């Protein structure tokens, strides 16, 4: 069955930053067959394509998107097995709201996702970015991802090793650029692989995975590496995110954002960071440092840019927010100012985390 096109909304109504112009065409799909058909039909016609879920990691041009926007409206969780020894498998359609998955898992005494509580957006986006927070990443629990391969026009299952996860990166994200073996494929904002569903392998227990993030450990009253009651960890993460404006709230402009706008830089250990800069081992002679630390010490504190229309969150330095009347151009101008300031102060060029559609930083 083919999904029917509806009146095209503006991307500002479909994204958490609440900016972006109209879509030329818009379709909501409620089945896998409809999703595949919409993608395949657009590709066969040479029509630009943007597939979205929760819209929490997108910055779309004020001019909008001159093609088809497909929103995956599927949801649900399938549990094909339930073995206390091997753990429990969750197979989740890409359109399912992510926090619903975390809530379901923690309420059924399944650990491995609890530190990812409260992250907005859809499940299908999580493997693309290798979503992570408070010491966990989805790469730690993903078993496989089923995708529609636009290059081969077929459904494929990508195992964990195939996905080649890295810090806020994966094969899925890297395929947004044209492939070396198919330079004609201008995948643009939608990657070669459209996520259909994600399979997670979770373990049973009343305690969380070892808590790896110092701030979360402190809030729980435990040492880093210790475990805590599963529901306590979820509650603590939700409280931390709320204090930072990282839980969606239509009445709070600090949550009108795309989450962390810049990724934490990963640099050679010899890069010459100041002695006081945070450092976390990143393997192969690399260290990860804090983008928030760099931004704050470059003169961009919480609330920078007030009164707006775009400004740094009053609760979290990494979030660039829409104070109610911002445009994409306003958000970009703020991001460029911050990036230029950090580059001048530290010689480090920050990399944006959201997917930029029709714009460049």
Précis, in short:
This protein has helices at 32-44, 98-107, 125-129, 160-163, 171-174, 214-220, 230-243, 291-296, 328-346, and strands spanning 5-6, 23-29, 49-52, 58-60, 65-72, 82-83, 87-93, 110-111, 132-133, 136-137, 142-149, 154-159, 193-204, 266-268, 280-283, 286-288, 310-312, 320-322, 355-357.
What does this protein structure show overall?
- The protein has helices at residues 32-44, 98-107, 125-129, 160-163, 171-174, 214-220, 230-243, 291-296, 328-346, and strands spanning 5-6, 23-29, 49-52, 58-60, 65-72, 82-83, 87-93, 110-111, 132-133, 136-137, 142-149, 154-159, 193-204, 266-268, 280-283, 286-288, 310-312, 320-322, 355-357.
- By secondary structure, it is an alpha+beta fold.
- The chain folds into 3 domains: 5-72, Uridine Diphospho-n-acetylenolpyruvylglucosamine Reductase, domain 2; 82-170 and 193-241, Uridine Diphospho-n-acetylenolpyruvylglucosamine Reductase, domain 3, CATH 3.30.465; 253-357, UDP-N-acetylenolpyruvoylglucosamine reductase, C-terminal domain (Uridine Diphospho-n-acetylenolpyruvylglucosamine Reductase, domain 1, Alpha-Beta Complex).
- The strands form 6 sheets. Strands 6, 7, 8, 11, 12 and 13 form a 6-stranded antiparallel beta sheet that branches. The chain has a 4-stranded mixed beta sheet with strand order 1-2-5-3, covered by helices on one side. A 3-stranded antiparallel beta sheet has the order 14-16-15, with no helix packed on it.
- Strand 9 (132-133) and strand 10 form a beta hairpin.
- The two termini are 39 Å apart.
């Amino acid at each position: 069955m083919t999904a029917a096109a509806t009146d095209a909304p503006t991307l500002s109504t479909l994204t958490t930053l609440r900016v972006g112009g109209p879509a030329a065409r818009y379709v909501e799909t409620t089945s896998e067959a409809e999703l595949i058909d919409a993608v395949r039909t657009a590709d066969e016609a040479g029509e630009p394509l943007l597939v979205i879920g929760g819209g929490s990691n997108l910055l779309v041009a004020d001019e909008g998107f001159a093609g088809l926007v497909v929103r995956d409206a599927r949801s649900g969780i399938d549990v094909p097995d339930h073995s206390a020894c091997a753990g429990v498998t969750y197979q989740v359609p890409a359109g399912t709201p992510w926090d619903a998955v975390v809530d379901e898992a923690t309420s059924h005494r399944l650990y491995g996702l609890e530190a990812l509580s409260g992250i907005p957006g859809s499940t299908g986006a999580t493997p693309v970015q290798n979503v992570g927070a408070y010491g966990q990443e989805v790469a730690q629990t993903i078993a496989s991802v089923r995708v529609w391969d636009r290059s081969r026009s077929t459904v494929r299952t990508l195992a964990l090793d195939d996905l080649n996860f890295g810090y806020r990166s994966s094969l899925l994200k890297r395929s947004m650029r044209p492939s070396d073996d198919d330079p004609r494929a201008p995948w643009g904002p939608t990657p070669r692989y459209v996520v259909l569903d994600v399979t997670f392998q979770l373990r049973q227990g009343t305690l969380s995975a070892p808590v790896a993030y110092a701030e979360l450990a402190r809030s729980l009253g435990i040492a880093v590496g210790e475990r805590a009651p599963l529901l306590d960890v979820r509650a603590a993460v939700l409280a931390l995110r709320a204090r930072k404006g990282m839980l969606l709230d239509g009445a709070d402009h600090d949550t009108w954002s795309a989450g962390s706008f810049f990724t934490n830089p990963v640099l050679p250990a010899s890069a010459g960071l100041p002695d006081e800069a945070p450092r976390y081992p990143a393997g192969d002679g690399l260290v990860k440092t804090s983008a928030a630390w760099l931004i704050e010490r470059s003169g961009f504190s919480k609330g920078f840019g007030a009164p707006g229309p775009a400004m740094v969150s009053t609760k979290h330095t990494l979030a660039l927010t829409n104070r109610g009347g911002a445009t994409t151009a306003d958000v970009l101008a703020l991001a460029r100012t911050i990036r230029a300031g950090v580059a001048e102060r530290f010689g480090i060029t920050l990399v944006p985390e959201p997917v930029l559609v029709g714009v460049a930083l």
